Description:
The chain has one domain (about 1-215): CATH 2.40.50.120. By secondary structure, the chain is of the alpha+beta class. Strands 3-5-6-8-7 form a five-stranded mixed barrel. About 30% of the residues lie in helices and about 25% in strands. The longest helix has 16 residues, at about 1-15.
Amino acid sequence: xxxxxxxxxxxxxxxxxxxxxxxxxxxxxxxxxxxxxxxxxxxxxxxxxxxxxxxxxxxxxxxxxxxxxxxxxxxxxxxxxxxxxxxxxxxxxxxxxxxxxxxxxxxxxxxxxxxxxxxxxxxxxxxxxxxxxxxxxxxxxxxxxxxxxxxxxxxxxxxxxxxxxxxxxxxxxxxxxxxxxxxxxxxxxxxxxxxxxxxxxxxxxxxxxxxxxxxxxx
Length: 218
């Protein structure tokens, strides 16, 4: 069983590497593969930013760090076209992100480092989110949390893969026993990515079922 576990971990690593995208300094940065984004997200929706709330919300970071102060979150009101995973039957969703500073001197360096997402009115995309532990919004905290329709070369194809991965995670037993070898590999790799973090602090609390880590670790 240990040997098979190593093989699955190798497969998971292949998903983590992904393809490279250009960076500002000219050094390729690996893009986060869609199966990994699905595995680690608590809520996934496809939709359009309908509005930005006027007031910022002061809230702690997603992962609570002793001594860490609150950060300013901008709230985007997203009109949901399709609820892929997590929440169902909803029309709108409040999505928080740390807005980039208007100028270098306006915010602390730590806040600038965390400002990786910028949502704008009428922006369409697929959003990979986590529920804020203390506030009534879901958060997009990394560039990989937003698949922008305007920037994606094959947005519809990408969303189809996201939905496929979500279906596999919704019923992992069926995914692992699928006649399709790709489905079996995807399911196994996503389960490893999702549950290898057991025992660490992570925002995805609602999907941490008792015994889930033990069940899929062999």
